[in-house]
Amino acid sequence: MNLIITAHKKVNMKTVTLNVKGISQGQWSSFLLELNLMKKAWRPYGVEVDLKAHSIKRIIAQGTSNGESTKKNRRSHK
Hints:
With 78 residues, this protein is of the alpha+beta class. The chain has one domain (2-64). The chain is built from two helices and three strands; from the N terminus they run E-E-H-E-H. It has helices spanning 25-42, 56-64; strands at residues 2-9, 12-19, 48-52. The protein has a three-stranded antiparallel beta sheet, with helices on one face. Strand 1 and strand 2 (12-19) form a beta hairpin. It is flat, with a radius of gyration of 17 Å.
């Protein structure tokens, strides 16, 4: 699985490409979520990080949700 990380702070832009082998789908999701946490942690210091990977938006959305959107609405029966 491939992941491209781009970090830019004003003018200086750095790019890192990671080719990951031997990782399960669950491990891959956890790996991307941890990188997303690092991205958020560096934001206050003026570092903008772009993560690019297949289905990353879906993985981050599902991994950071609190489950409220997946709960079914139940009617109260009296």
